[in-house]
Design goal:
Blueprint (H helix, E strand, L loop, with lengths): L3 H29 L10 E3 L3 H19 L6 E2 L8 E2 L7 H6 L1 H7 L1 H28 L14 H19 L2 H5 L12 H13 L15 H17 L1 H24 L3 H22 L1 H10 L11 H6 L39 H13 L4 H17 L3 E4 L2 E6 L2 H4 L15 H26 L7 H24 L8 E3 L10 H4 L5 E5 L6 H14 L24 H4 L18 H7 L2 E7 L12 H14 L7 E2 L3 E5 L11 E4 L7 E3 L2 E7 L2 E8 L3 E11 L4 E7 L2 E8 L5 E4 L3 E3 L2 E8 L7 H4 L9 E12 L1
Parallel strand pairs: 7-8
Antiparallel strand pairs: 1-6, 2-3, 4-5, 8-10, 9-10, 11-14, 12-13, 13-21, 14-20, 15-18, 15-19, 15-21, 16-17, 16-20
Helix pairs in contact: 1-5, 1-6, 2-5, 2-20, 4-5, 5-6, 5-8, 5-17, 6-17, 6-18, 8-9, 8-10, 9-10, 9-11, 10-11, 14-17, 15-17, 17-18
Length: 773
């Protein structure tokens, strides 16, 4: 019998257990993130600076968009002046909400560090709750061994706490401290799992039951947590869908065993439909944006096959010790940047894995145990990706993920290895069972002493000692070491841009451009949080080809000033009218870096600097220098009235290099298709005029804009023929004119055996101009 005193003690401990668990996970979070707490409002951890700076920007943009009532999934502040969607970007919107108040009160570093600490604490606590539910206090399937005494009661909480450690504090989550806080958004997974279980399994009996017994409330919460997971990381939302589907199928299989699958289905249907409905409703804006952008040719949605293989787990990864472990001596050598190809951050841990396997073995007869064990195995297999790799040697053996990625939308999964998170959740539950069994064994070993107070105290101490030893074992395996920290305000150029913060609105062009350099563009995103001006670069989670680098972009004179000709087949050229371009697109400021990193040993090339300075000589407003420093100058662009500005040209893709013909620049169209780009700084009415010739034989030529045909005619061989289109209205901005010829080209070598010219020639042009009417 359990005495009244024992029963009261249990109630008190049960009431305090959740607070004690939260406190324990918080203290552990302070340890694994050290020295974050010492620089809470000034510095941030992470040596993968491109991702870290990107995530700092994410927090800032979430605040900006919410406080100004803008759509957080679209921004005009990146890739200016065109902007971009962020649906496939790891914006991790809930993290921005978690860090919102700290950011407003203490600044951006405080928000970032809050997100890290909260991620660890809530992930551990969410798992603590899930394990408590699975272990339970009532019902054979929840773990009631029909034994009385403090040992049984203590085991449940010890197992739950350690299960939270197994899930939340892992090489995988600690590796995220290199600069990927969205990877730490694990808390929604166990919270969803608990609510989904409560909704579809109810009081813990996996055998058929009838009636929802008010479980619709848990279905509603499950839908909320699934939506939060989707907004945090689409990967984690996919894993939760896998979890939910496997659970439903497994319960139906059990129903078949008892010859009542329809009863099981009816039991689960109501709460499950509520969860699904709530999740779909809450994620509708995200789902619409994802569907709309899925086929965007500018966005690399579908994962590259080689990248997917690189980010698939290796079989050895699961047992490999962390390369940045404190005892291995490599933790100071930029562990986030120099991690091995084996991806040892996927290691399951020897103690954690042993506890999980023990829990699976000793409780195997329970239906719930078989579910968790099977799901763990499935998750690990999916984490291996499409092909089995051992020691990063491709065995050529196909794996189930190859079929999984063929499902609708799954082609976007670029990192199958992250399925290890779902396996870890299963391990946390099974490890909780393992701890319970170990504590109960201690209890049974002293069964004869249970009649005395000394016996109870002794067994309680034994359970505590066991829990402490397991806890230490779990921590010893982790890569716990001081994290690389940087003071945000002391980063290169950070203080320089405070001079720009108070200036009037307008776009910022940063030279040199760095469209494909993630470290530089990530840093420029972070600097934007200081000056608040739209920038022309960006670093997104998915590769994005901005119109800035299109063939007909008006910015090539700024992007590659040494490569764009100043004299060409058209007149005037966009490259020679930089002030028109800057004023038309609202670019008010230009930053010129003489070193992208702010270091003297990494200078920008002297020829590039001189080319940029020549541009600045044409566009900067005298006496309006915003900032001058050792490696950065910030200039103000002169304002210009465009009401009388003339149209200009840029030669797009599909042309051979410039030649001279009759003393004039001339180009052949390459393989029958060339793009001529017309930049109109205002709405202009006029017609195109150009001179052309054909090579080898007369050829048909068509000039068109989109679906509009401007000219169709025959271009003869020999003398130049003047071509004029009918007058049309040219809208302000860039218009691409396509020049095409249907006949196959010829090479000069095919007509003259002595020629070495192997170019395929069709038609060529010179003297291109636009006559305004």
């Amino acid at each position: 019998m359990i005495s009244d005193v024992e029963r009261v003690d249990r109630q008190r401990l049960g009431g305090r257990a959740h607070w004690l668990a939260l406190a324990g996970y918080f203290l552990l979070a302070l340890v694994v993130t050290y020295p974050v707490i010492l620089h809470f409002a000034t510095g941030v951890p992470g040596d993968l600076t491109a991702d870290r700076d990107q995530n700092l920007w994410n927090l800032w943009w979430t605040k900006e968009s919410l406080l100004h009532f803008n759509n957080p999934f679209h921004t005009n502040l990146l890739y200016y002046p065109f902007g971009t969607d962020l649906y496939y970007h790891t914006l991790a919107l809930p993290l921005g909400l978690i860090g919102l108040i700290p950011q407003v009160l203490f600044g951006l570093p405080a928000a970032y560090n809050t997100v890290l600490l909260v991620g660890f604490v809530l992930s551990g606590y969410g798992m603590f709750r899930l394990v408590l539910y699975v272990l339970g206090t009532g019902g054979v399937e929840q773990g009631d061994t029909r034994e009385s005494g403090p040992g049984r009661f203590d085991a449940r909480y010890i197992g739950a706490f350690l299960g939270g450690v197994v899930f939340a504090f892992t090489p995988y989550t600690l590796d995220a401290l290199k600069g990927q806080p969205e990877v730490l958004s694990l808390q929604w997974m166990p919270l969803f799992a608990e609510m989904w279980l409560r909704a579809t399994v109810g009081d813990g009996r996996w055998t058929p039951v009838a009636g929802d017994r008010g479980r619709w409330r848990f279905g509603l919460l499950a839908g909320v947590f699934l939506a939060l997971a989707a907004y945090s990381s689409l990967y984690y939302a996919v894993y939760l869908v896998v979890f939910a589907v496997v659970l439903v199928v497994y319960r139906l299989v059990i129903g078949l065993r008892y010859r009542s699958p329809w009863l099981v289905a009816r039991d689960m249907a109501g709460p499950a439909l509520i969860a699904i409905g709530v999740a779909l409703l809450l994620t509708l804006p995200l789902a619409v944006g994802l569907a709309r952008d899925h086929n965007d040719p500018r966005l690399a949605v579908e994962a590259d096959a080689q990248h997917r293989l690189t980010h698939s787990a290796d079989l050895v990864s699961f047992i490999a010790p962390p390369h940045d472990h404190l005892l291995f001596g490599t933790w100071q050598d930029s562990p986030g940047l120099n991690e091995p190809g084996l991806h040892d951050y996927l290691g399951l841990g020897y103690v954690a894995l042993a506890l999980a396997l023990l829990g699976a073995f000793v409780t195997w007869r329970r239906p719930s145990t078989r579910f968790w064990t099977g799901l763990m195995a499935l998750s690990l297999v999916l984490a291996l990706g499409p092909v089995l790799q051992v020691g990063r040697n491709n065995t050529g053996i196909g794996l189930p993920f190859a079929m999984f990625q063929a499902l609708p939308g799954m082609d976007a999964i670029a990192k199958p290895e992250r399925f290890v998170v779902l396996a870890r959740m299963c391990m946390g539950v099974l490890a909780g069972w393992g701890v319970v069994w170990l504590v109960q064994e201690i209890w049974r070993s002293g069964a004869k002493a249970r009649s005395s107070t000394v016996g109870f105290a002794g067994q309680g101490r034994g359970a505590i000692v066991l829990g402490v030893l397991v806890f230490i074992g779990l921590l010893v395996e982790l890569p716990i070491h001081p994290r690389f920290m940087e003071t945000v305000a002391e980063l290169p150029f950070y203080r320089a841009y405070t001079s720009l913060a108070g200036q009037p609105a307008g776009g910022l062009m940063e030279l040199p451009f760095a469209t494909q350099q993630s470290e530089t563009t990530g840093r420029r995103m972070l600097l934007q949080t200081v000056h608040d001006k739209p920038i022309m670069a960006g670093y997104l989670s998915r590769k994005y080809d901005s119109p800035i680098i299109d063939s007909c972009s008006a910015f090539w004179g700024f992007i590659s000033p040494l490569d764009v000709p100043r004299v060409d087949i058209a007149e005037p050229l966009v490259v020679n009218k930089p002030l028109d371009v800057l004023n038309f697109y609202g670019i008010r400021y230009i930053s010129l870096y003489s070193s992208l990193s702010g270091r003297a040993d990494e200078p920008v090339g002297g020829d590039d600097i001189r080319a940029f300075q020549q541009i600045l000589g044409q566009v900067e407003e005298p006496g309006k220098l915003v900032y001058a420093g050792d490696y950065l100058d910030i200039h103000t662009v002169m304002a210009e009235d465009l009401s009388g500005a003339a149209a200009s040209f840029h030669i797009g893709a599909g042309w051979y290099p410039i030649e001279q013909s009759g003393g004039m620049p001339f180009r052949w169209v390459q393989e029958g298709h060339g793009a001529l780009c017309v930049f109109a700084p205002r709405v202009i009415t006029g017609n195109l005029q150009l001179e052309g010739t054909a090579f080898g034989t007369s050829r048909h030529v068509m000039l068109s804009v989109g679906g509009e045909t401007l000219y169709i005619g025959v271009m003869p061989v020999g003398d130049y023929t003047s071509v004029q289109t009918e007058p049309r209205t040219w809208q302000a901005g860039i218009t691409q004119v396509d020049i095409t010829t249907p006949e196959a080209g010829q090479t000069p070598a095919s007509l003259d055996p002595g020629s070495k010219d192997r170019r395929v020639l069709t038609v060529g042009f010179r003297a291109v101009r636009l006559n305004e009417k």
